[in-house]
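Subject: sequence -> structure tokens, single chain

Hey, anyone have a minute? Need the predicted structure for the following. Not urgent.
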Amino acid sequence: MNHRSILAGALAATFALAGAGVHAQTLSRAETNGTPTTMPPRGACGTITLTQSTSQVITPLNSVSCNTGGVHAENSYFRSFAITEDIDVCEIQFGIEEATAGTDGIQPVNVNLYAGTGDFPATFPAGYTQIGTAALSVADQTATIFPASLTASVTAGSNLVVEVNTPDGDAAGHTFFIGSNADGESGPSYIQSADCAITEPTPTADIGFDDMDIVLNVVGNPAGGGGGPDPVATPLPSSDTWSKIVLASLALAIGVFGLRRRARR
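Reply:
Had a minute. Here:
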């Protein structure tokens, strides 16, 4: 039996148990169908844009989060960029497929930047230093690219890891699906959610969502007036990925949360 067959069987068992009466939150796509949009990186604050996204399109019903009925647990989404020349970061842009707050139309989202020289995610977070953060208030919206202003300096030879974090929205009734498409990427998209037994950043392709290419860009300027670095794809880390996936998938059946896309209405 191949790896995909093992994963498919584990996921089938998970959803069968959930359907039998276990109230489990799982990975799901959004129910609402926002209009797809194409928005080029704006980069008003800088002359350099780093991206691993082939396209800036935000595709409806494409992203997943750890949620129940669309109301999300804590989720983090990552990309890792290999930096070849010093850069001063001034903005992070991330796609939003859907953001719907539970009450007042505003929900919190955090953007964190880390730098390190070790492999990501194998040496993360212990081998990385947080170099920037922004606490955002995100209004209700669909199919947009959100600009988050923050400053940080990254030196050549480092890996720049960008995290978009949505705190647990269960009590407030928040829904958030990060923007993505299936148009390709030059480096992996990562997701982490402890409530869905994904306890470290894991490529979306490794949990069965290889069509979820997260739209996430870094904007900045050359440090000291030098040229800007080119985006470099980060190789997939070596690990006992498949055994972790099977165990995590089975754990969803008894967990409070689960990763799922929301079904169409």
